[in-house]
UniProtKB/TrEMBL annotation:
PANTHER family: PEPTIDE N-GLYCANASE PNGASE -RELATED, PUTATIVE-RELATED. InterPro entries: Glyco_hydro_92, PNGase. One of its GO terms (biological process) is glycoprotein catabolic process. This is Alpha-1,2-mannosidase. It comes from Stigmatella aurantiaca (strain DW4/3-1).
């Protein structure tokens, strides 16, 4: 909408923000995770449990947000990596 209104700078800013989710994906555990302000993971790999309520998530856990990227499906599939791995994640969900 900002693009259509001629506000191209704001449109680019919002597009870039919408793609920041990739920095929250942890390939080592296969889930999106919360980070601390210093960039480290909120919960270390050894203590990460995707079914645990909280742990940096609000009103949910890592499973709830595991596929919550409706605006960038192909890039989400690439994180898992690939469509078949994403399909397996959806089946597990």
């Amino acid at each position: 909408m900002t693009q259509e209104l001629g506000r191209t700078h704001e449109a680019q800013y919002l597009l870039n923000r919408s793609l920041n989710y990739v920095h929250l994906f942890s390939p080592s555990v296969g889930f999106f995770r919360a980070r601390k302000s210093d960039g480290s993971w909120f919960v270390p790999d050894a203590n990460f449990k995707p079914n645990t309520w909280g742990c940096g998530f609000t009103e949910g856990n890592a499973w709830h947000d595991s596929t919550l990227v409706p605006h960038d499906g192909q890039a989400l599939a690439n994180l898992y990596p690939g469509k078949s791995a994403l399909a397996n994640k959806l089946d597990a969900l």
